[in-house]
Amino acid sequence: MDPAFETRDAHPGIESTVHDSMTTLPQPASPVVTAVYQFRDQTGQYKRKERGSTFSRAVTQGGTAILMDALADSDWFRPIERKGLSNLTQERDIIRSIRQQYEGNQAQPLSPLLFAGILLEGGIIGFDSNVISGGGGFRLFSIGGSGEYRRNQVTVYLRAVSTQTGEVLKTVHTTKTIISQQLQGNATRFVAPNLFLEAEAGISYNEPKTLAVTEAIDAAVRQLTIEGMRDGLFSPTDTAAARAVIERYEESKAKAGRRDYFGRLLQPDNRSGLGLEVGGGGNVLQGDVQGSSLNPSGTLALRQPLSPRWALGLTNTVGRVGATGDFGETVLASELDLTYYFAPRARFTPFLQAAGGIVTQFPEPYRLTNTASILGGGSIGAEYMINPDLGLSAAFDVRYTADDALDNEDVGSFNDSLWGGSAGITYYF
């Protein structure tokens, strides 16, 4: 049976994915006595509800308990109770009173409370809903399905304060995404003249918000520990192991600094110079002859970036243009094109391209005779940057001619056009 339809016994809580990397840091020379008075939700947001109202909060209100657990597991901190300090002092008063009552002046005093070397402050300061959302679906003959997804994110800030001077020694922050997905399918059909069948099924997945907050807090404690070692605030027993951890952390932090608000890894040096593109593809002639067929082509292009988003190019394409059994010619097309990149610093970006030029037939290319046509159109595609200097691209292309003579026939009121696709690899010098 599917586990979703079974009850389960209570079990130890699930650890976050960062927990192991937090607890396996090099050991400290001496744990730091640490106090946490309150680590609370500062967003003030309530849980979303389609209808009616609710007083449930969007994120957990147990941030203090989660942080105390992370500090205890990290081995670098020695947490002391401050959240329930009034309860603690009241219980100590009860113990002191009972000892005095039964032992009189011989009563042993209680051990003094520990005082903290540092005070941890901060909280859950951000919960952003629908950072990215989308979906898709299809339906054919009353049978179809759909899927939706939504991404939220929670942000945690943590700072260490010296109890001797009140100086803020270190501040760190972490962000964790929260994914929700839903898939569903349905079908409606007449299975008999008087019998109508309707069926549907679906499943949804929602990443637990409490675990997301736990992971963000664990990551913040780990980050605070590593930066404390780096800046000399905390002392490890194994300096060589600590140095290796710090180096890996610096690399990951440098990479994190190149991410945008949606978590995409940016490459600010993309397309730094003149690009040489080699590619190929195919086209289908929409003209006045019958029997359209797919014909191959090859492309050589130069592309000069004008800005991060715009590039000017010169493209030469050699290929076949024809229709089955009626027409076939080898042509050369030379075009100037202007390309717009939607996300120029991302590894993957869609683009739009406008192009115009001339197409001529062999064996006399570039001669403006009855075998030449002016053409123009555009492309929509995407480019994936393997590294800042090397990109792979694919596009859907449409070209219209200024006359109706590309296929040597002039029939009807519509000019000839070419529809096709292309792919290429570009090296930017």
UniProtKB/TrEMBL annotation:
Spans annotated as Disordered: 1-26
Feature: compositional bias, Basic and acidic residues: 1-12
InterPro entries: Curli_assmbl/transp-comp_CsgG, OMP/PagP_B-barrel
TM segment ranges: none
Gene3D superfamilies in the cross-refs: 2.40.160.20, ABC-type transport auxiliary lipoprotein component
Keywords: Cell membrane, Lipoprotein, Membrane, Palmitate, Signal
Stated name of the protein: Curli production assembly/transport component CsgG
